[in-house]
Amino acid sequence: MTPTATFTAALEQAATRTEAFEALGRLVADTLGIKLVTVMTMDFTAGVARRAYTSHPVEYPVSGDKPIRRDAWFDQVHGRGQPFVANTIEDIANVFPDADTIASLGCASVVNIPVRVQGQIIGTLNMLDVAGYFDPATVARCEELLRLPATACFLLPA
Question: What is the CA radius of gyration of the chain?
Answer without folding.
Answer: 15
